[in-house]
Amino acid sequence: MSEHECESLAPHAHCCPCTPQRVAPQGMSRRAFLGGTALGGVALTGLSWSLLSAAEGPFDPPPPRKALKVKPILVYSIPKRREKGSWRNWGGIETQEQADEEVVRIRGELEQLKATADFPVDFLPIAAIQGARELAEMPDVAAADTLLVFAAGGGGGEYNAIGNLKKDTILFVRHQSGPVYLWYEIVSPRYLRQHTDTLKTVGIDEQDVVVDRMDEVAWRLRALCGLKNTIGSRIVAIGGLDGWAQPNDVMAKLVEERWKLDVRNVDYPQLGELIKAARADNVAVERSKKQAAAYLAQPQTVLETDKVYVENAFLLEEVFRRLMKEADCGAITVNHCMGTIMPMSETTACMTLSTLNDAGFLAFCESDFVVIPSGILLAHISGLPVFLNDPTYPHDNIITLAHCTAPRKMDGKSPEPTRIMTHFESDYGAAPKVDMPKGQVVTNIIPDFKAERWVGLTGEIVDHPMLPICRSQIDIRYTCDSLRLAERMPGFHWMTSYGNYLRELGYALKRIPIQWEVLS
Length: 520
Fold this sequence. Notes:
The protein is α/β, with parallel strands linked by helices. The chain is 32% helix and 22% strand. α5 links the parallel β7 (168-173) and β8 (209-211).
């Protein structure tokens, strides 16, 4: 049975089941001049190899992450002495001189945070205010993505006015890191709960309050930077949008409503013509051969398939890079990658997606937009490549994760030991078996089909076996109960990265909103 002619919904010998295609009309996105409407986005049309190959810099790095713009705001008050009566609130800022000293302290802390941040962040000039209503008139407040409020003093009206700006907001209060702040005492009863027993503020909650620690501010900003770079981002979809076993029109609607992704579709007839022309371009072909030779000459790289498949994979990589450049983006996904693309490229897409991820792009197989948004978000939070994979069944605190498209540079820098083999299901082409190191901590995202509940799970790699399954394989050990994981894991595909980013993911997801359930 071909991928285009589904005669039943019985399981098939590949990772994504064949599903009927359901088409729903979609509106034009903001750059519709690039092509006509298509399911879940805009079709890139009128492409030719001569057009794409004429563009400069096809091997430039992907576009960098956009910096998070943060507006620091010090809210304080200067009390006036009153005889025989209370005249000052709690707090160590009572004079203008002390407020000016606090601005200097804040500036130094933010300079240090920016210098050590592993994500792009720009701090706008500090606003030191005694009345928050003036903030609405400040141009850089309107331009800011996030407000970082140093809540030294002031009344509830100031903070309600800040909340009314509808910006992501972090409230910082001091206990021991400087002069104690009034709002160290009253941020919960007076502001968050508004003199009641339950949360009353909208858009700001207990998770947005930080006491003393700039590292606690940093990870929240890291999460918001990742979210900024995810919402509304653009991705090229070869063969269109898909959703594993979900109706495509439903997935297209979720992608638009939840993530506002700008999907640029390239149909397969058009891709086939581009590949055919690229294969006739002697300069491009020779370039791909040199790239393949350089890749295979790397230490701890073993070739166990025909070299021509690797050379063809690098030629396909150039086609994909040029398509992303034409679409002005750094992300791509391939639908029908289990068959349709193979006769065109005379290899599999596995190797190509791996090398693109190693180069800093976001490259996913299967066009599964159930899980792809989680990969975009995790990559933009971590700054690292991510691994879309198939999970197995959890048991004895172990689960196997596998796919044929793993990046080699999962830490963003160093290639792991890799065998270049055939794609498992087809026994054709080139696919990397990446041996990720034992002992490495990983973050796993398990998205549900409805984009309502995601599960987060950390684990430790304990093995990289060689089972007769997709080539890149890891066994991870986790700490939660295996039955609970089996009961709570939704969807199908998982997304994995090195490191632990569970708190950043939860902080970002509450703004979508998607429920975040941590099982670690």
